Amino acid sequence: MSESLDYQCACPAQVCNAIVDLRELYEYQSNCLKDSETDHKMHASIAAGAAISHAALEACLQEILELEGWDPVLLNLPDSLKGKPIR
User: Fold this and answer.
1) DSSP 76
2) Positive or negative, the Cα torsion across 30, 34, 35, 36?
3) pTM above the 0.90 mark?
4) Can you list the residues of the chain whose pLDDT is less than 50?
5) How many C-beta atoms lie closer than 10 Å to residue 81's C-beta?
6) How many domains does the chain have?
7) Which helix (H) or strand (E) holds 86?
8) Nearest to residue 55, comparing CAs of 14, 29, 23, 13?
9) For burial by CB atoms within 10 Å, which of 13, 22, 69, 71 has the most?
10) SS3 state of residue 45
C-alpha cells in the first residue's frame, strides 16, 4: 500500500485496503457464529461472500502488479512508476 502511494496513485492501495477489510469481515463473521441456526447461517453466508470477494480482489491485485511491472516477491515500486506525475 505504501509503495503505491509513493507515485501518487491510490488505486492499488484502495484494492489492498479492500482486501484487508474483507479479511477483517471474514474473521469477524467466522467468530460470530451464534447459537441459533438462523444466526449461524447468516454469519456463514456473510463469511462465504467475503471469501469470494477476497479471492476476486486478490486476482485483481495480482493483475495490477503484473500490468504495472511490480516485483511479485519484494513488492517494490517499479522504476517506471517512480517520479510519475500526480493523477
Assistant:
1) P
2) negative
3) no
4) none
5) 17
6) 1
7) none
8) 23
9) 22
10) helix
